[in-house]
Amino acid sequence: MSLAKRTRSVRGPASAIAVALGCALLLSGCASDPLADQYRAGSGKNYIAGDGSVTEIVPENRSDAVVFEGVDESGGTISSRELSGEVIVVNFWYAGCAPCRAEAPVLEEAFEDSASTGVAFVGVNVRDQAETAQTFNKEFGVTYSSIIDTNGQAQLAFATNVPPNAVPTTLVLDRQGRVAARILGQLKNASILTTIISDVAAEKN
């Protein structure tokens, strides 16, 4: 699978909005996390509707690199090893999730805006078969690929960063493969994500 067309390199000043929160992205034991709270309470939904809150982690507080791999909707392989050295945006979704449908055009806009700057976009479809994902992509104009993760392998790799059923969630991984930022719930504005991408891409290794 080729992801070359999804990469770019960023030049420009990093913004000063990086925030290191005490729970860092480790949701277990982080009582203030809105998605974790909803999950514990139970809602009867098939997804947990996050509030779009953003957590950014300064480099010295980031955890180890996340290693993941899976087969996409076209039968190709997506691997963190193949994307090593790039900033990676990972979005967890499935077709029947209402906020996932709402944010799909916004994610695509962010992808298009970032296409020349060395960033890879990867979806992780947590529920659907490949045909359903392909239909979704056509309906919403999504042009980047998604891992079809019905076996939960990719979700397991991100288990400490994404709570159960926390769909949609968007992560930004730095060039070392570490989680640098997380958006809980629906992304409502592409500029939020593109700003984070620019900041992370501009970091010195």
Keywords:
single chain, 205 residues, Glutaredoxin, two-stranded antiparallel ribbon, disordered N terminus
Written description of the protein model:
The chain is an alpha/beta fold and 205 residues long. It has a single domain, classed as 3-Layer(aba) Sandwich (Glutaredoxin), CATH 3.40.30. Helix content is 25%, strand content 20%. The protein contains five helices and eight strands. The protein has helices at 34-41, 98-113, 130-140, 153-157, 190-201, and strands spanning 51-56, 69-71, 77-79, 87-93, 119-125, 146-148, 169-173, 179-185. The strands form two sheets. A six-stranded mixed β-sheet has the order 1-8-7-4-5-6, with helices on one face. A hairpin with a 5-residue loop joins strand 7 (169-173) and strand 8 (179-185).
Strand segment tally: 8
Largest sheet: 6 strands, mixed
**Assembly type:** single chain
User: How big a fraction of the residues is strand?
Assistant: 15-25%
Number of domains: 1
Terminal CA distance reads 27 Å
Number of helices: 5
Outline the low-pLDDT stretches.
1-49
The H-and-E topology, N to C, reads as: HEEEEHEHEHEEH
Computed structural class: alpha/beta
CATH topology: Glutaredoxin
How do the strands line up in the largest sheet?
A: 1-8-7-4-5-6
Can you identify the CATH class?
Answer: Alpha Beta
Q: What is the name of the CATH superfamily?
A: Glutaredoxin
The second-level CATH architecture is 3-Layer(aba) Sandwich
- Percent of residues in helical segments? 25-40%
Give Rg in angstroms. Answer: 16 Å
Overall 3D shape: globular
Mean pLDDT: 80
